[in-house]
Design goal:
This is Xylan 1,4-beta-xylosidase. Belongs to the glycosyl hydrolase 43 family. With about 500 residues, the chain is mostly beta strands. About 5% of the residues lie in helices and about 45% in strands. The chain has 2 helices and 40 strands. The strands form 8 sheets. Strands 24, 26, 27, 29, 34, 35, 36, 37, 38 and 40 form a 10-stranded antiparallel β-sheet that branches. Strand 21 and strand 22 form a beta hairpin. The relative contact order is 0.12.
């Protein structure tokens, strides 16, 4: 009997190990190797246009300012910011569309007008480097605008409900009533989705066909919800035929690396390849937001777009493990950046405001690593000032470590708590200085402080921020490292470093 039980245990163990190995092999065969993450961290709703050998890309900027940062690339892998179309706070900015018409660049984007009503706006420039015009209100609701030119050269704005609005010749006003050209693809009722949510319509003409890609299934929610469906027509005005093998792209299982894949658009390369740009959440790291991804697609013998099973034909994006202040696009949340922040490679200056990050935006960077540290020397020039480092979702949900003369400060969920440091934090010559370090290790946050940047003391409080993402908190934001200045006066920041762990 003992031998029999022992044999059964061995068999069970072997079966378990084999199942685990098979699962690992299965995970490795998912389309992760065919997918390239282009920009780290929260870069949702990518819109890309190619001009010659150069690509330009914008994303949803939501409450962050400067907004609608324009990135350029020669190889589709490495992207450099070249301008910001919205230097001033313009409200919540959702999925934009960047396009070129008659050698002029346009960015169409949805937001809210001065009355708080949903509307769509457009800004334009003769160069992607700017300067960009002040936004023009198109006075039409809806989201996810797409600039479309029909077979006769007429300009239109296609919105998420499938409504096609005629545009003026200069693209700066709506000239008539819309026509409904597309109503979506019916999702099988047994699929786990967030909602139907037809959105993110994009049109690309390839040979004699117009291909329409649309997002369905809800932007977040279940990992299998968001998707890219396709339809085609010989005319922008339809009729549109849905692909027989829809969807083109979808997360099939929660075991995959990329969740909620959707909001796709196609861009051709000078070599004639077709690249699908889209976004997705990373499994286990929804706190990073929706990240910009790409895969290669081809036109099959059936005349439809199909994903390839080959790795994307791009070099691996370069990401240094150690970065300083000059390596980030710094932004504010919900307020004008230029009013309180000034950043140079050597010195960051913040005007103090409020008592905690609940009262005023920190200076924010974007992070895409699972594990990282930020560190800086913070100097107060006013006895009523305070400063610290934070990991920030919004004004009510954040965690950080700061100080003011004589006290340590803990920022947590919109509140502030005080404690005594192990070494005295004093004012000398009217200034008070402290080195602060925050570590984000798989969404577990911990902190350190030092009076000289050499001898460090660990702060006795840590925090778990795994649930700080849209599915629990809403707003489609992400965890961002930042620097906060409160009270009165100015805070000077030197030796800022970001280190991938």
């Amino acid at each position: 009997m003992r031998t029999s039980i022992y044999a059964l245990l061995l068999a069970a163990l072997f079966t378990s190990c084999t199942a685990t190995e098979n699962q690992k092999k299965q995970d490795k065969t998912e389309p992760v190797s065919t997918t390239v993450r282009l920009l780290e961290g929260d870069m949702p709703d990518p819109s890309v246009v190619r001009v010659g050998n150069t690509y330009y890309m914008v994303h949803s900027s939501f409450i962050y300012t400067p907004g609608l940062v324009v990135y350029s690339s020669k190889n589709l892998a490495d992207w450099t910011p070249c301008s910001a179309a919205l230097p001033e706070y313009t409200g919540d900015i959702w999925a934009p569309d960047i396009c070129v018409y008659d050698n002029r660049f346009y960015i169409y984007f949805p937001t809210r007008n001065e009355k708080g009503e949903k509307t769509n706006m457009v800004t334009w420039a003769d160069s992607p480097e700017g300067p960009w015009s002040k936004p023009v209100d198109l006075k039409v609701g809806g989201i996810d605008p797409e600039h479309v030119v029909d077979e006769k050269g007429n300009r239109y704005l296609l919105l998420s409900a499938g409504d096609l609005h005629p545009l003026s010749a200069d693209g700066l006003s709506i000239t008539g009533k819309p026509e409904i050209i597309y109503k979506g693809w019916e999702i099988p009722e047994e699929w786990d989705i967030e909602s139907f949510s037809l959105e993110g319509l994009n049109v690309k003409k390839i040979n004699d066909w117009y291909y329409l890609l649309a997002a369905e299934g809800g932007t977040a929610g279940p990992p299998t919800g968001h998707m890219v469906v396709q339809a085609r027509s010989k005319s922008v005005h339809g009729p549109w035929e849905n692909a027989p093998e829809n969807p083109l792209l979808r997360t099939q299982s929660p075991q995959e690396t990329w969740w909620s894949q959707g909001h796709g658009s196609v861009v051709d390369t000078p070599e004639g390849k077709l690249m699908l740009f889209f976004h997705g959440y990373e499994k286990g790291y929804l706190t990073l937001g929706r990240q910009t991804l790409t895969r290669e697609v081809v036109i099959g013998d059936d005349g439809w777009l199909h994903l390839t099973d080959k790795p994307a034909p791009l070099p691996e994006p370069q990401r240094p493990s150690l970065r300083t202040a000059k390596d980030f696009i710094w932004q504010a949340a919900g307020e004008n950046f230029s009013a309180r922040f000034h950043v140079t490679p050597e010195l960051i200056t913040l005007k103090a405001k409020g008592k905690s990050p609940k009262d005023a935006s920190p200076l924010l960077a974007r992070a895409g690593d699972h594990r990282y540290e930020i560190e800086a020397c913070l100097e107060l020039n006013n006895a009523e000032a305070s400063a610290g480092l934070v990991i920030y979702y919004n004004k009510d949900m954040h965690f950080g470590l700061g100080f003011r003369p004589g006290e340590l400060l803990r920022y947590r969920r919109g509140a502030i708590h005080t404690s005594q440091p192990k070494t005295e934090i004093t004012v000398n010559d009217g200034k008070c200085r402290l080195w602060v370090r925050l570590r984000n290790y798989d969404n577990i946050i911990s902190g350190w402080y030092s009076i000289d940047g050499k001898t460090w003391h660990k702060y006795p409080w840590g925090f778990d921020m795994q649930g700080y993402h849209h599915n629990t908190l809403g707003e489609f934001l992400s965890l961002r490292p930042g620097i906060y200045a409160g009270g009165e006066g100015e805070v000077h920041v030197t030796d800022f470093t970001y280190r991938t762990l």
